[in-house]
Known about the structure:
By secondary structure, this protein is an alpha+beta fold. It has helices spanning 15-26, 44-49, 69-79, 92-109, 111-118, 124-146, 159-165, 168-178, 189-200, 211-228; strands spanning 6-10, 32-35, 58-61, 64-67. The mean pLDDT is 94. It holds the Pfam family GST_C_2.
Amino acid sequence: MATSGVELLGSWASPYTNRVQIALNLKSVKYDFIEENFYSNKSKRLLEANPAHKKVPVLIHDKKPFCESLIILQYIDDVWTGSGSSILPSDPYDRAIARFWAAYLDDKWFPSFKELETAPEDSRTTIVAKIFEGLILLEEAFAKCSKGKPFFGGDNIGYVDIVLGSYLGWINVTEVTLGLKLLEESRTPGLAGWAERFRLHNAVKDFVPEAHKLIEFYMMVQAAKASAI
């Protein structure tokens, strides 16, 4: 299938945008990237393309918009079947398990990181404990899903790899700001090794932002919000 007529509305700092970029790279899909200001002054095009949520990412393919990153990943996998490896497993059970862990990451685990942003000092220990509990579950999931191979998807990067991997930049931000190590080899050796392999993959290495850049971005956003009050 031709790869022309593909655009991505997103932000370099958004993990949800990053995961779509990684998926497009895995499938060798050429696309035009349009940087959006997702926290203020949203473009007319973004608002028209995603009127329900008004947020990035939005994939536009043949002038049709697709919203929500997990849905976009599945769409990419369904459309560009002849290019690159499959993102979702072909086996129905493995496919369901991959979707389960992706939903767990987005709906339950990563929201704990967002809690830390506004949490008072005396409650941070409890939240960090929840994050570590989730990492233990993910370590077990990695062992089962990978079946001894390098990635959740086996020999190649798959659905869960992309979803978890898109958060690595912001995970590093938390490590830097709190002075702790989350993906440590002594606690979760499987995930620690996986993270290194994931970051070095050709489809990934340009799309997991460095922690210092994300911290600068976060401070800029907070300053913009404060000045708008």
